[in-house]
Design brief:
Length: 545
């Protein structure tokens, strides 16, 4: 069944842009269109119509409609049909005298002329790339120090879009789909997101409705006089209709509770392609969960998990000389380390299609160059490393193609050594982020939205400690599953988790700076409240809606 953004929320988004203090120039939304087209400092895009394929022209026209079209899929505008949200306040159409289908032919001149005054693009033969200071220029000239509300922008961009769900979505599910849809549409990177958008979709959720707002209802939100009335007709050729449809498969993909992380199947595919990967992230983002899922996936006939630490050595990993006592005396012999022994085990399997998995937990807590020694070369898989001596009659090391390696790395650990560049080149690195979606959807603590609360705490950590590597993962707010595999917090258990797990972590991160902890969780909660009623009152005052 198809669902749409509730009409009232589309109207609210229009009012938001009417009253926002953004510059009324069209360039902000032309920049967003360029972002959709993929522009970056190294990747060029063009608005030159003659340089675009027919498919690119069709996509550009559809993007123009999504960003500013005042007519729905059953209509067409002969003139005055496009108005970008920044122009809502002054009711200024984009290219008012041009038929909608012909507007892309005029866009090159618009962008190039505006780029002369505020040069956010490098322009070489109408091929545009972003200048290094484009963020500062856009912020100063167009945003004017503000951020764009993501919820209001999504409500406007997807005002005519349909989203196909298997069942009736709740507000959390619908908003999660739209959050991922708009980030994908504008190719929003983490860096762009921080300065460009207000991350408010989890607080200002969008509501699904069985009916879509119509073009006429959108136009009624504006007080057009007779000279500015859009010239709209019922569409005559169905192939000219502008549509925005998110089918069931796409919606299901966006609904998956992975947050901004890859799925288990993605991790497996990366591992199969690269043969060895490192899962990185702050504590609690699920690195161990991913490795556990791999070991229990049934795709490997055997797995071995080891953990590096400060005293872990080459002798533990590759091999060592040991003393062996027998009747008549003691002599020196050799012993294979866990890695070499596991390699020999894999090689002994005559069925080379069987897959084996080695998991290295806390990779960067050990001295990696010393632990791997000459075996680093063998990570390329087409090398055979000669060992410094034979260990139980094995003098060379080569890693079989059917042995896969997954390592984890805690990026917030201040005591770790720098990762050896030789290791970096030979592993794929997969960054994992806090999964707020899982907390919001699957973890219950009274009426609190723990996903939103953790997101708020993490933003305060970044603002206060100025280090994004010190944010917290979702496991800080996940209780043990009950007999029905539900994650439900009892109030007293949550209080203890907050006081004796979360607060000590923040004290360590902030070097026990009481003022910093107070800024992150609130002054009342910063010392740890033991009385349950007092704790709940303070927690609700700080994080309740």
């Amino acid at each position: 069944m198809n669902y749409y953004i509730k009409k009232d929320q589309v109207s609210e988004s229009i009012e938001y842009f009417k009253n926002a203090g953004f510059d009324t120039d069209d360039m902000l939304f032309l920049f967003l269109m360029a972002k959709h087209m993929g522009v970056s400092a190294s990747y060029p895009v063009t608005f030159l119509n003659s340089a675009l394929t027919s498919e690119q022209k069709k996509e550009e026209l559809n993007s123009l409609w999504l960003l500013g079209g005042l007519f729905d899929s059953g209509e067409m505008c002969s003139s005055k049909g496009v108005m970008f949200p920044t122009a809502f306040r002054k009711l200024a159409f984009y290219q008012p005298g041009t038929e909608f289908n012909k507007i892309p032919g005029r866009m090159k001149d618009t962008v190039e002329k505006k780029n002369i005054n505020v040069t956010i693009f490098n322009d070489v033969d109408s091929k545009l790339t972003l200048r290094s200071n484009y963020k500062d220029l856009i912020d100063d000239k167009y945003l004017k120090g503000q951020k764009i509300s993501l919820s209001k922008l999504a409500a406007w961009i997807f005002r005519f879009s349909s989203f196909e769900f298997d069942s009736i979505p709740n507000e959390k599910q619908f908003s999660r789909v739209l959050d991922k849809a708009i980030k994908k549409y504008f190719k929003i990177t983490k860096n762009d997101f921080l300065w460009l958008f207000e991350d408010d979709l989890s607080n200002c959720r969008l509501i699904p409705d069985a009916d879509s707002i119509t073009g006429q209802e959108v136009r009624e939100q504006f007080d057009f006089d007779a000279t500015k009335m859009p010239e709209v007709n019922v569409i005559s050729a169905p192939e000219d209709a502008q549509v925005s449809i998110y089918d069931k498969d796409t919606v299901a993909h966006y609904l998956a509770l992975n947050g901004d992380n890859p799925s288990d199947s993605d991790i497996y595919d990366i591992l199969m392609n690269k043969e060895q990967i490192v899962l990185t992230g702050v504590p609690g983002v699920g690195k161990s969960r991913y490795t556990k899922n791999l070991t229990e996936s049934g795709k490997f006939v055997d797995s071995l998990t080891i953990q590096f630490h400060a005293n872990y050595s080459y002798e533990d990993f590759i091999g060592a000389e040991v003393l062996k006592s027998e009747v008549g005396g003691t002599y020196v012999t050799t012993k294979q380390g866990v890695f070499l022994k596991y390699i020999e085990k894999v090689k002994s399997d005559p069925n080379k299609s069987n897959k084996y998995l080695l998991v290295i937990d806390e990779l960067n807590r050990g001295n990696i160059a010393e632990i791997f020694g000459e075996s680093i070369l063998a990570l390329d898989r087409n090398y055979e490393a000669s060992l410094s001596k034979e260990y139980e009659d094995v003098g060379t090391l080569s890693i079989p193609r059917n042995l896969y390696i997954v390592a984890t790395m805690n990026t917030s650990d201040r005591n770790i050594a720098f990762l050896d560049l030789a290791i970096r080149r030979r592993f794929a690195f997969v960054p994992l982020l806090p999964n707020y979606d899982f907390l919001s959807e699957e973890v219950v603590f009274q009426d609190f939205d723990l996903g939103n609360i953790l997101k708020q705490i993490n933003q305060r950590i970044i603002d206060t400690l100025k280090d994004p590597e010190l944010i917290l993962g979702q496991s800080y707010f996940i209780p043990k599953a009950d007999e029905s595999d539900k994650y439900i917090w009892e109030a007293n258990d949550f209080k203890n988790q907050f006081n004796f797990v979360l607060l000590p972590t923040l004290r360590e991160y902030s070097f026990n700076n009481a003022s910093a902890i107070g800024s992150i969780v609130g002054e009342n909660l910063s010392d740890g409240i033991q009385d349950l009623d007092d704790f709940m009152a303070s927690f609700s005052a700080e994080f309740g809606e």
